[in-house]
Amino acid sequence: MDSGAPRGSHLALAAALAVVAWAARAQAASAQPAPRSAEQAPLAAHTLLIALAAAGERLVAVGDRGVIVLSDDRGLSWKQAASVPVQALLTGVCFFDPTHGLAVGHDEVILTTGDAGENWRLVHYAPEAQRPLLDVWCAAGGKAIAIGAYSAYFTSADGGASWRTGQFAPTAAPRRVAAAPAGSKSSAIEETGGGYHLNRIVGASATRLYIAAEAGHLYRSDDSGDHWQELASPYAGSFFDVLPLTGDALLASGLRGNLYRSEDAGASWQQIATGTVALLDGAAALPGGALAVVGLSGVVLVSRDGGRSFSLEQQSDRSGLGAALAVGRDELVVAGEGGVRRITLGAATAADMAEAHR
């Protein structure tokens, strides 16, 4: 397996930022029969936050120690959720509609909300499994899929009220020889067995889904997750996000600044230069046509040509970023080490130019 990618958030940012927390909490879980509720914290919006989702016009971010924060002004201000029944690291969040949603995290936590994230209810909790859930996908009609470490795969057909544990058994991809990342010991991707960490699940349409996973694994479903097909991978390192574009185009991002673009739903790939070796963990498409990919060390990559090329806009604080959500033509809400905040694309470049001319 890819030793660089055991993931504990959607496991990208949390592989790099919170894998130590995973080990500590796994040991503590057996001594703690029932979870404790998240504590109210004045600086909740500035703690480690891993994932973002929209609940109608509301934004919801989840992260460390069960913290969930909400914004009703497009990320300008945040308040903490009134009640969350766990202190586990929360790693994924999604909404079926503006009021009903799910969150997942360590200790196999699955939470539901029926009031746009104000209050949450625990519906699944298995700390003894020592297998974190890393992301969750919601569809209109109540279908949901939660994924995680060691190919954890849970499905729900009733809006998250009940869950079924399934075996993740994708159809194998056609074997293709592909160059390994620079510095790796292997020169080709090898046939593998299974049990890989499933890091991110995203929807490209009502029926087409993608999963980004460790050790160079990518998967696609064309029937809302009933069946999965392994995709021919362009490299052997872990993937942490997939961003569907128009038509069959998509981006896949991973370790050491690796970013790939496909025009044919993952059948073939082209590597995109990024100018960084930082782990890339989140991406968003903006209303004006720009694309943004975020990662550790404050990396923000911006494309204005459909993902064929990117410019690097390094954030001055260099804090790790793990998720991004568009809130305007050139504005993002990002979540990561320093919590949640809004950034404007191009602002970092403008500041650097101003500093250079002083």
Separation, N- and C-terminal Cα atoms: 49 Å
Average residue-wise pLDDT: 87
* Fold-level CATH name: Methylamine Dehydrogenase, Chain H
Written as H for each helix and E for each strand, in order along the chain, the element string is HHEEEEEEEEEEEEEEEEEEEEEEEEEEEH
Query: What is the molecular shape?
Result: globular
Q: What's the CATH class label?
A: Mainly Beta
Q: Quickly give the structural class.
A: mainly beta
Spatially, the strands of the biggest sheet line up as: 1-2-3-4
By CATH, the architecture is named 7 Propeller
Uncertain segments are 1-31, 176-193, 350-358
Count of alpha/pi helices = 3
What's the alpha carbon Rg, rounded to whole Å?
19 Å
Give the helix level as a range of percent: under 10%
Give the CATH superfamily: YVTN repeat-like/Quinoprotein amine dehydrogenase
Strand content: 35-45%
Instruction: Count all strands and give the number.
Output: 27
